Amino acid sequence: MASRSPVTIRILKAVRRAHTCDLDTLADSLPDLTWNQVFLEVDRLSRLGRIRVTAEGSGTYLIRLPERGKKFDSSGARP
């Protein structure tokens, strides 16, 4: 198993604390990281099924942890 980077750990902790947050709020909560760094790691974690990203319209994307015991593919559909 690959070790997690400090960026990964910080993003997962921030999402866990917030329960659900939008991408801009997440990026704002990590001021020493650029928006691009947060976006790239959120994208990677989403593809791995570690977080779930859903479009809420008007360019807003909500980020949350997946429900326990349930995996989601990159499209957000249940297997």
Describe this structure in words.
By secondary structure, this protein is α+β, with helices and mostly antiparallel strands. The protein is built from three helices and three strands. It has helices spanning 6-18, 23-28, 35-48, and strands spanning 20-22, 52-57, 60-64. It has a three-stranded antiparallel β-sheet. A hairpin with a 2-residue loop joins strand 2 (52-57) and strand 3 (60-64). The longest helix is centred in the middle third of the chain and has 14 residues, at 35-48. Mean pLDDT is 86; it is low at 74-79.
Q: Report how far apart the termini are.
A: 23 Å
What is the string of helix and strand elements?
HEHHEE
What percent of the residues sit in helical stretches (DSSP H or I)?
A: 40-55%
Which strand order spans the largest sheet, edge to edge or round the barrel?
1-3-2
Features:
79 residues, alpha+beta, three-stranded antiparallel β-sheet, 3 strands, globular, disordered C terminus
Helices and strands in order, then pairings?
Elements: H1 6-18, E1 20-22, H2 23-28, H3 35-48, E2 52-57, E3 60-64
Antiparallel strand pairs: 1-3, 2-3
What's a concise summary of this model?
Helix content is 42%, strand content 18%.
